[in-house]
Amino acid sequence: MPLPSPTPRRWLLPALLLLGFAPPAAAMPTGPGSFCAEYPTAPACQGTQPACTYCHVAPPQRNGYGAALEPHLAPGKPRPLSDADFAAALPAALRAIATEDTDGDGAPNQFEVEQGSLPGDANSVPPSGICGGGENPQFKVCQYDPRFAYRRMLSDFCGTSPTYAQVVTFLELGSEEKQRAFLDQELDRCLQSDFWRGKHGQLWKVAHPKIRPVGSIKSGEDAGIIPLADYYDDYALFTWSQTDDHDARDVLTASFYVKRSGASPTTYTATNNLSSQFVEASRRAGNMTSAWTLTSFVMFTALPRNAASQMYRAYLGLDIAKQEGLHSVPNEPRDYDAKGVQAPQCAACHATLDPLSYPYRNYNGLGGLPNRYIPNRLELLFPNEAATLKNTPEQGVILGQPVNNLMEWARVAASSDAFAISTVTDYWKLLVGHAPLPEENEEFVRTWQAFRTTHAYRVQKMLHDLIRTEAYGAP
């Protein structure tokens, strides 16, 4: 069965070292743990695990690093290696090529791994430690400059550039400590602006790839020609979760909805009911169960793999179509809907994807009784499908943890490192302009870890940390 189409992304080493080193390519779920046990301080192992691009150009094609590892992986054992043999052989193989320069960029493999660059990509090199910014009489090049951060922050959060008078006033504050305190004050002011939180504002821009709007089938305000569901409800909950002192995890776990009203300022208000939403409170899991999600990702599907994979990709940053975030479940996939997912070329990914999808079993998309939870949905609405379809459980597994239903799925996801990393990455890309670079990894890790712990998943508090990073404030 073909997997859901991937969404274009630019992430810093966010996924898994999953593939074997002999054709045909076989998933190796034990690889990430073995790699990170050998290199526990590597940037790729700080809350994430190495991507398949460590060893592959495009699976099963190996890059230089993967090709160099292969001869050292249990030589003499039959191919493809079992998970156990691969895990046992990988540490020694990594050590065997640690001093080699497999991509020819002048940096030994171990140094690249420890510095956060890719040992199989000549275009990915370790940070040199040398600033290439040159001289600039206006700013402190290659170090944090509060005046630069002030200009940038007003543009990013308020949508305006500072006037000459504002810059003069800022400089007259004198000490950097006072300037940074003023930056915090101005950030809080801008975070209330419609440019940041209003309709089609910056937060809506962050939400686009998660919601994936299609205007032609939108209902409600700005309805399309075939009005099926109102995705403005999804933007409202997302914006609520990212503003003020709200918990960002609400986007996945909320049992309430959010109503948007007004403009300049736009306001968002939690409510128990919306006329455009049909899932009862006891079955809600934030935007995972919105009418738009059920309409556009469940649609007419019996087993909603596309809905599960989109939530996994959108909110955890893990794209199964790219073999990211695979946590194979024993004895899976079961292929309850007879789609052929037990075929060798499919099973490696579906051993993760299908258990992710089971908790969506009773959430209906289009067709009879649309956009709601229907007990025994498969038995009622798909009587002519495969006889085994009715055996599909509602219990599933996410990130290796069993869950009984979609609400538990959401709670496990929202409390994971992957959710914190993905959330901070969204803002890093919006504000810094790219995914974290190797030389920015230390600041990035510190930011997402504080977001999860010190700031208790409050985006507004995390943004105060982000604008203080050199990645953001150094010209």
Task: Please outline the helices and strands.
Blueprint: H1 31-38, E1 56-58, E2 61-62, H2 64-69, H3 83-96, H4 109-115, H5 146-158, H6 164-171, H7 176-190, H8 194-197, H9 202-211, H10 232-241, H11 250-253, E3 257-261, E4 267-271, H12 291-298, H13 305-316, H14 344-357, E5 363-364, E6 372-373, H15 377-381, E7 396-398, E8 401-403, H16 406-414, H17 417-431, H18 441-452, H19 459-466, H20 470-473
Antiparallel strand pairs: 1-2, 3-4, 5-6, 7-8
Helix pairs in contact: 1-3, 5-7, 9-10, 12-13, 13-14, 17-18, 18-19
Keywords: Signal
Signal peptide: 1-27
Protein name: Cytochrome c domain-containing protein
Overview of this protein structure:
Keywords: Signal. This is Cytochrome c domain-containing protein. With 475 residues, this protein is mainly α. It has 3 domains: 48-115, no CATH class; 138-192 and 417-474, no CATH class; 202-415, no CATH class. Helix content is 39%, strand content 5%. β1 and β2 form a beta hairpin. α17 (417-431) packs across α18 and α18 packs antiparallel against α19 (459-466). The model is unreliable at 1-27 (pLDDT under 50).
Give me some keywords for this one.
flat, disordered N terminus, Cytochrome c domain-containing protein, 3 domains, single chain, 5% strand, two-stranded antiparallel ribbon, 8 strands, signal, 20 helices, mainly alpha, 475 residues
Q: Into which percentage range does the β-strand content fall?
A: 5-15%
Q: What is the helix content?
A: 25-40%
Could you report the average pLDDT, rounded to the nearest whole number?
88
Uncertain residue ranges: 1-27
Structural class label: mainly alpha
